[in-house]
Amino acid sequence: MATSGADRTAERLAAVPGIRRSPSPKLAQFMLPHFLDAETCAALVERIDAGAHPSTIADPNGDTAFRTSSTCDLNHRDPLVAAVNRRLHDLTGIAPEYGEPLQGQRYDVGEEFKAHTDYFDPHGADWETFCAVPGQRSWTLMIYLNEPAAGGATRFLATGKLHQPETGKLLAWNNVRADSTPNPDTLHHGMKVRKGRKYIITKWFRERPWPWADGELG
């Protein structure tokens, strides 16, 4: 991950004013409240609603209720999306070409994403499809865009930590260990929304340049 700068991201994040680091040695995880303002969050919610479609998973496991949310592939040419994307790259210190396009997710009542990891299984059926060129996912940055009336927390199983949705709050974690092997202690559950809707955006970074960036980032 040294080429992308992801090996230095934890140190960079730890120096951000107001950020909180998880005390667990099992994973590198950070939380920063109010990363985005309410107006920006509301504008992103509008974009997600306009482009939402059923979410999918890599390496399907036969459980049709494993991920029941909706997903929106945000337009990276949209000035608002581009500005948020730049902020995330600046925050991590990871060069733009190593980032996936920004994605939004929407959870209605009863919808969830059961316990999963964001890294790809090197032995999975979809490894070549999603990782042959850009490689493994290094970091995840997730931002809550609103606060549903009930439910919708993100639970990390290895630490037992529940992160409640708060408008503008950012969570960041490293999907791989120092030796670049996947870290199973990043297993997390997007818990069911009990009342209202939950919106988030997610930014994933890769160990090698992402093909979409060619000619798009100049």
Q: Explain this structure to me?
A:
The chain is α+β, with helices and mostly antiparallel strands and 218 residues long. It contains four helices and 14 strands. It has helices spanning 9-14, 38-51, 79-92, 127-131; strands at residues 20-21, 29-32, 53-54, 70-73, 103-107, 113-116, 137-144, 150-151, 154-156, 161-163, 170-174, 188-190, 193-195, 198-206. The strands form three sheets. Strands 1-2-11-7-14-5-4-3 form an eight-stranded antiparallel beta sheet. Strand 1 and strand 2 (29-32) form a beta hairpin. The longest helix has 14 residues, at 38-51. The protein starts with 8 loop residues before the first helix and ends in a 12-residue tail after the last strand.
Summary of the model, kept short:
The protein is of the alpha+beta class and 218 residues long. Helix content is 18%, strand content 26%. It is built from 4 helices and 14 strands.
